[in-house]
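Note to self: user wants both folds in one dump. Writing first protein now.
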Amino acid sequence: MKRHLLGASVASALLLLSACNGSGSSSTKNIEPKSAEASMESGQTQNANSAPISPLEREARGKIEQLLSMMETAKAKNIDVTREETIVWFAKQFLKFANWDEANPEAIEAAFGYERYYAANKKQLAADLPTFERQKVIEIVDKGIGVLGQELRGEIKRRPVRKVDWQNTKAGDNMFVSNGKPIFPYDYFSKTVGQPLTNTDIYNDHLGALYHGGEDLYPVDHDRAINSFLLKEDGTFDQQLMEELTRIPDTNIGFLVYWIMGIPEWVEQREPEVRKGRSLFTGFDVDNPLAREVWGKIIRETGRLTKGKKVTELGFVLANEPHWFSEKDHWTARFHEMTELSSYTVKKFQNWLNAKYSGDITELNRNWGSAFASFTHVQVAIPMDKALLGTAQWYDWMRYNMDRGTEWFKFMQDELHAVNPDADTHIKIMPRMFMENSRSGGIDTEALAELTTMVGHDAKSLGSKNIRPSKSSKWLERYAYYWSGVSMFHDFMESVAPDKINVNSESHFLSSGQWRDLDTRTSYVRSVYWLATLGGMDANMAWFWARDPDGSPEDRLEGELNFFDPGLAGAYAGSNNMQPHVSNEYTQVMFDMNSFSEEIIALREQRRPVRLFYTETTAINTKDYMTQGYKLYEALHFEGFPLGYVTNNIIQKQDNKNWDVVVVHNTPYVTDHEFATLQSYLTNGGTVIVDSKKSLSLNEYGKPRAQQLTAGKGKLLVLNTHDIDKIKQAALGAIKPASLPAVVVKEENGKPYKTTSWRVVDNGKGGYTAILFNLGHDTAKLQLSLQNGQGFTITDMMTSNAMPSSFAIQSEDVLLLEVMPN
């Protein structure tokens, strides 16, 4: 009987039923790890199953030999072949994987069957997969032959790869640093559970080599190394479980996760309320005193034991995708999220209200339309009826729920810093907590980004249409992929915390519960990773690597799968584990970006001249704040400069000279404090554009505000329009000439809207570095010029080749250019 460790993803990261009740699963492995590879390397014509080597595999192996021969020639000419080494590695791996898949059709059919998008056609998909994988191997090797051939012939010159120093990379002030230069570490989150950290088939430059506690180690009975089960009822620690943490080699850098999903039985017996107010990924009431006592002890002990260890260089993840959705009919209800409140939470809410209303219960009753005798009598029905949206009761609970979440994470961080004051922290925040309209989830994205020492999240994108019928893919009408889910979120996080390292501890750019494409475009992979890194992402752990070295699925995905949530079971089908071209491209794009890390940092660390005003006050009180806000963001995104946001805190805490204008759009609700901050900004000489008099007209309880903004020493423009284009033109008109991009890009794409995004920065050599993204479906014609009208030359930095000032950019192309005035 085998027990497995739990993995994490946007759709899963949940307790296995086997971890809850001791059930197990059977293994499907039947190929010796090295025999297939050995027979192929020796030129035999049969694989480990005594099956003849397929013509496609024979063709692929011939091409691999051709590429290896070219690599020897290149090395003799001092040409870097790191990229080709990775192509060869993935090619050989996936030929091995294809043989395993061919020999185990039932296992692959079952994998497709667990994902409802593929289930109806699972038999044919399983039958086709080995051929598909071999064809894709041939494609990546052919591409490698073509590109290396160009370099050997002198047609292009690539910059050598800068590898991540997995032993000595350090966290700097706002970036990771390797050998004195910025570096972007990469790896896979939830990586082949059951394989030791010392296995170089899993930990290497091709797949990444970050260490992290629990998940990659040998399976144990519980879900993570750092979890509630570490502490026994007698106050001592389970040393066997603790070894899963302490035996991590102090060689490679990495990160650690506080896995707060479960709670021991002894805690439940002593605290019957401990599960009240639980959520999907937080398995207990965060207000419960005993739960806090348990976690306080665990955090202090693990923080003490790992102090100064390399495995904490990328920080401690304080939680996996936390949320506490408390509105009726939310999708989390089936996981019993926030279905009732504990007495501890009710009391804390009552105290919060007492402070909010300065002890005036009459004022609360007036706002709520209630008749409570005192604050100790106040009750709310949770989950809350959506019909209450926009009411004082809705606002007060939702605002409190956010403050409650922030206070819990402050508690966790304070406990860690009490014993390990230099420990870095971040939280895997789901972008939907900011991007979607709902604010019932208890997550204040801004407050948490300010709280932790690093910015944490699991930002994702959609490379093709959403595979869930209930989810919209409207963005596909204009764009090749869901770029705004990357850019808008990153621009907000970078606005809030511009001087913090940004860690995506579970990047779902390659697949997720909402989308996957069995033949994902490599152009998409390249574009989305460049876009996210330009936006601020300093390190990322992709979802997910689930192949053992012999080609079989990792331990958790063997046999009959019986997870708490079906997401993990279906995650394997259509993922990069079946796509050699995608797995290879991910590593190739990280190689390229690390080769140009200094240029990327220069491009990203620019002043953001236009700032969109953001407030949770309107977000909580309205049903479409983010939907409407995106429209203005989209309109301004394609103008050659990075967009930013301001909030009450940003205006008060950051240098107001970092922007030229604040734009207030579709924002009727603000607190008196927020209004006063905007007025102070104007009084001190700032520039504010307001779309109409409706914005800023109400307080958080919907009461009309008598005051209106006045210009003071600044400039105030009230447009009285909801027309996005008019608001956009007013914002562009308020930008100071020095803030405009030095390189101007004129686009023709046959559409009434732009699809080419670009950024420009001074390169310190008298010229400029420019990056361009075509986010549309079609080729766009571009004309470049300089703002000052001067002549110039252009060099494609990826190939070292000269380019004309007018050229076409293909869909999803990314161009990194050097523009030098004559």
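First done. Writing the second protein, which came from a different request thread.
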Amino acid sequence: MEGLQQLLYLHGVGYDYVKYTGEHVVFDHQTREQALRACGIDTHDERRIEEKIYQLDIAQWQSVVEPVSMVDELSGTLAIKVPEHRRIFTGLLSIPSLDIDYRFDTSLCEVSGEYRYMGTNYLEIQVPLPSMPIGYHDAEITLPLGKFETQIWSTPKQCYRAQPHKHIGVSTQLYTIKSARNLGIGDFSDLEELIVCSAKAGCDFVLLNPLHLLFNDEPDRASPYSPNHRGLINPLYIAVDNCRWVQNKTEFTIALQQAFTDLEAHKRQPYIDYTVVSESKYALLSLSYRVFLDDAIDTEKRAFCNFKANNKAVLKVLANDDFSLFCQWLAAVQLESCQQVAKDSNMAIGLINDLAVGCAKDGLEYTRNSALYATGAQVGAPPDPWAQNGQDWGLPALDPVKIRHDKFEFFKSLVKSNLNSVGGLRIDHVMALRRLWWCLPLESEKSGCYVYYPFAHLLAVLRIESNLSKSIVIGEDLGVVPPEVVSAMKESSLLGNILFYFEKDEHGRFVKSNNLRKDTILMIANHDVPPFAGWWGSDDIQLKFQYNLLSSTTFDDEISNRKIQKQLLISWLEEHQQCGFDINSDAQSVYRAMLCVLALSPAHLLCIQLDDLDQQILPVNIPGTDREYPNWRRRLNRTVPEIFSGNTDFIKKLTQLRTSYE
């Protein structure tokens, strides 16, 4: 059916892709139809198909302006569409928020496109605009045809860029931080301590895990990458002792001391028990809230009210639950304080937040915005060398047409809230801005295909919000990356992400340091691969075998391959004049030698895992597992000051190496 093929294209359902092996794969037609059905379209109803084609194609030409008009901030033009026989007229553009009333004459405007339908020729005309500040501006256009409204997005060409220096920083999963004063889980006071220690070592940023709201009624759902809501903060990160109104309050002091007593044995364990921690922290937060209502000073109460008023869009999912709103305010205040500490410590960037690719299918974000999502489709990844059968992440899939609702307000709100009080934002699986792999039920089996999103608009939001907040943006571009995403990231100044483990040439050898990409954040490992000490000692392979994730045969193969990879790493070090190592060398010595080489690479940011400074061997996460291994629970071995006591001078050396080779 020709109409169905057209609708598949207009709705963003992919036709084919190039697999990681270089193989050209054409998607099964049944799979593509199922993607449309997931968007609520009856693929057997020809009348409905024609209606959707009209809405997505023809109607766009019969509307004078679209709901959103993207223009260049300096020399933009506004696209309007009119019938050719009404081509010459004068019009008025009004933008009340900018006090702009701008008259234009279409006889002086260029024609940029045309479309013919039912005997009428429609023209797209580019109306030159005066320069306007970066942002979203509601506009009204008055023409002889009538009055029309649009939201003009005054868009910069690039995301915000920090000073053009080679920066070094650390990454951490905040919950893993160990300290005498926290309640069994790393919190914002621990983060302040990490910032100070990092800054003293010469670091310019701290990269965090997603801080998204999880499930306080199901504390064991600990993955920050499958959150309840990405626009809200997990209250477990609040430092409950760091609030003015509870200081010297006898009731709170006694409750806090009791919590320390109850958690004493638990804090010595290698893994977090979220049920135990949540019970203690939420009880103390609830007590803090009661004290706040009774004893907070007027400025504090006004600050809380202003927070609720200024963040209505993202807070509405909490349905006027004042305790939950209080927790969000307190978390936001403490996060802002952390970024201020970073600035006061002369960090060039400060905190870098992390935006997960999706949310849980039963969380607040999904249930309050379910109209924007497809039904029965989940996002994941196609087969790759690390998951030969592909991956289903269990996250619901946004409908690429419905996400345009209300001028992309949903996406704008997510980006804006995650850029609050930070100097940068990492976008998990940045390819999702362009396309996502949909896992679809097909009769008795699972199938999948790529579905494409309004890339230009989503990218424009990032560029706008990045500049408004003066925060850099990093796109996690590991895996199969379409060429148009590569070029768009470069043009928009989105930094890419290099994971050293995966940087191999066509012969399987590690890429030379000076050949690594410049506009990137470079790291040896992240949360999805083992820490270096664990990798070097093959502890990750032993662990997978222990948890029955590898057969005996596969285990032997993995161990043999790891020896090969270690020898390749030694050869790589020798190529960079780091000699004297063999496969039995001490992991920390090899790790430091690697960083000395990578410090001289062209990569814009060099990121050191706190796990690696801690010489941790246990992974924080084993991809492809859920309950088999205690993911997202493993603590650090030592406190932040203890970790930096033996690493500050080394990090300073790396900083000097970086700056001397800029």
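Dump finished. Worth passing along: The CA atoms of residues 245 and 296 lie 6 Å apart.
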